Amino acid sequence: MPEFRRKILVVDDQAYIRKIVVSIIKNSDLNADVLAVEDCNQAMQVLERGKLDLIITDLNMPDMHGHELIQQIRQSSLNKFASICVLSGSDKEDDIADSRQAGANAFIQKPIDKQNLLKTIAKLI
Fold this sequence. Notes:
Elements: E1 6-11, H1 15-26, E2 32-37, H2 40-49, E3 54-57, H3 66-75, E4 83-88, H4 93-102, E5 106-109, H5 114-124
Parallel strand pairs: 1-2, 1-3, 3-4, 4-5
Helix pairs in contact: 2-3
């Protein structure tokens, strides 16, 4: 019987952040497949193709704000119940509160702390 693997999508316009997050997940014991895209439009295309367990998204991206992406995910039929984690350089209380209001389950500040990221992902999936 094949083992069950979680599906995680990473959305960030900075290539090095995508690379770091993907590497952390792939080198962990999370048993997850991870796909990374550079903007919200690409994320929406992935989200329309199948069900995901977790979406990790930045807030400030060139094509759409992360809050808008979160709202679209929550309104979708396929992934509205997926867990969402914001990964942002912002430390503003408003961004954290607005992320939760939009539908995010967790908020992690950059720079990335590997153990905190893995602990948060484990809780969400």
